[in-house]
Amino acid sequence: MSLALKLVLTPVLLAQAALTRRRLPRLPEAEGPRQGEVGAGPPLRLLITGDSSAAGVGVVSQRQALAGQLSRRVAERCAARVSWRLLARSGLNTLQTLELLRREAPPAADIAVVVTGVNDIIDRVPLRRAVSARQAIAHHLRSAQGVRHVVFAPLPPIHQLPAVPQPLRYVSGADARRHNAALARWTAQRPDVSRVAIDDLRLSRGVLAADGFHPGEPVYRHCAAVIAEHIATVVWPQLQPPRPPPPAPTPETPP
Asked: Can you tell me whether residue 255 is helix, strand or coil?
C-alpha cells in the first residue's frame, strides 16, 4: 500500500481501531503460577515477558498458555532443569514492556523470550521507535538482568485475524510484516539476540480465543514448540561450556 493511500485511510483506520478495541470482549489473563521449575538436567533459567500473548490471554490456565507449554518443551528439548518466570501484562506495547521490566526487576535468567509488537501496531508506534524499544529491552536484559541471550517472537499474521475489520486488517498485517522484517535485520547483526521464525502459523476462528483476536490453546502450543526448537538448536548450544578435548592416547611401551 502506498504512503499516500495510507494517509488518506488514516481517519478510517483510527476509527476502526477504536471501535475494535471497544467491541472486543476483555478476556482475563490465564490463571495459575507465574514461576516454577520443570525437567531434569543442567539448570536453565528462562524468563518470558511481554503483552497479552505472553500473559496467556485466551486460555484458562498458564499450563495451557505460552509460558507453561514453552517451559515444558524447553526442558524436554534441552534435557535441562528449567526454572521459569513469567512477567507480562495485557495491553503492553514494547516500550511499556521495557518499563515493566525496569519496575519489577525479575531475577537473573539465562534466556529471555520477549513477546511484543501487536500493540505497537494497534497504537501506530512508528517502526523505528518500535525497533529502538526492542534494542533497549535487549540491552536492559543483558546488562541489568544478566540474561545471556534474548529471543524475540515475531508479530503474528494480523491480516488473518477475523476480529479485525477491513481495511484495518490489511494495513495492520502489512505493518506487522514490516516490523518483522526490521526485527530480522536487527537481530541478524548480534549474536546475543535472535528472532524466531514462525512462518507456518495460520489463524482462524478454530484456533483463536473466543474474541477472534487472542491466541487459543492450539496457537500457544504451536508457538511454544517452534520457540523451544529454536532455543534447543540455536541458543542453548551456544551457552554451554566447551567440552574438553578427549585425552591423548597413551603410547604403547615397546616390549
From this structure: coil
